[in-house]
Amino acid sequence: MKWRTHPADVLPLWVAEMDVPLAQPVVRAVTEAVALGDTGYPAGSAYAEALSLFAAQRWGWDGLAVERTAIVPDVMLGVVEMLKLVTGPGDAVVVNPPVYPPFFLFVEHMDRRIAEAPLGADGRLDLAVLEETYRRAVSGGGRAAHLLCSPHNPTGTVHTAAELAAVAGLARRYGVRVVADEIHAPLTGPGAEFVPYLAVPGAQDGLSLMSASKGWNLAGLKAALAVAGPAAAADLALLPEEVSHGPSHVGVLAHTAALREGTGWLDALLAGLDDNRRLLRALLAERLPEVVYRPGEATYLAWLDCRALGLGADPAAVFLERGRVALSPGPDFGTGGDGHVRLNLATSAEILTEGVRRMAAAVG
Ligand SMILES: Cc1ncc(COP(=O)(O)O)c(C=O)c1O
């Protein structure tokens, strides 16, 4: 999608796909399946077992129980299914803008109401705002859920154990069910520690969505896992059987291979992304010093505050038209998005450098 959507003269630094060669274990798993004609429907729990082991080794969390998982087609369809389990039509879903635009689109498509609890100016969860939003969300007597993005897209914020425990405490107090989208968790950089939501005290009735798709660039090989805390197992058990028909078997093989054998590749990727964050910071300081960039601790996305450039609510439109560089428009991310763009830095140093050159040319 990244390289196909715009005309050839546009440099694409938008949608969350990486310009990387795939991890060899993934290539091997997919190639062997195709050579063998092993291209039918998915079966078994190998993906969940691989994720459970990865979670224990990577995050020191040994609470991911395979029997409390369900395979889903991808993270967003998994989010929709989890929200259906814990809310009804007309109920509120709390989100923390600026946030991944499909959170709004999918929630509205399923007849739930969005309730915004914006991040603070520091890009972190604002617990006072969250509490007030929870209070209002349940005040009419309906049920409510909190769709938590952890780590956070677009800011790259990694929520701390204390923040997550505070969320769990508030959720318990107001009867709000937390659904954590943890797709970016493997992309947590060396300077930060990812804490799974279900690992914090008080989060027993939480639900999480995890996948190898962002970490290993497998969005075209559809598969993801829904994970329930102990007190949400009964909810997850109500997931309709047909949801498990959606994931791709070849996708499951690829994701499993990534989690089992792709950690060396992932570590090399994270080092490269760290280099790119530093490069982006240097490029912006040199060519666009008015742009405010606070490098995130996770994801390969850079959230750029372009308000000082005076390009209006949607600077991405100006960068595209005048600079021929495609970035994600800030206003799509909800409250706090105006005047911002999201830049995807998972590419080569050459392309990143050319991208910033084009941004600078657009305003020069
Ligand atoms: C926070 C977040 N959730 C979900 C997705 C999409 O995941 P999937 O393709 O598995 O639905 C993305 C993709 O960028 C994302 O950033």
From TrEMBL:
Q: Does the keyword Ribonucleoprotein apply?
A: no
Q: Which Pfam families match?
A: Aminotran_1_2
Per the UniProt entry, the Enzyme Commission number(s) are 4.4.1.13
Q: Where is the Aminotransferase class I/classII large domain?
A: 79-358
| Cofactor list | pyridoxal 5'-phosphate
Keyword annotations? Lyase, Pyridoxal phosphate
Which enzyme class, named as a word? lyase
Q: Which family does it belong to?
A: Belongs to the class-II pyridoxal-phosphate-dependent aminotransferase family. MalY/PatB cystathionine beta-lyase subfamily.
The protein's name: cysteine-S-conjugate beta-lyase
Protein species of origin:
Streptomyces asoensis
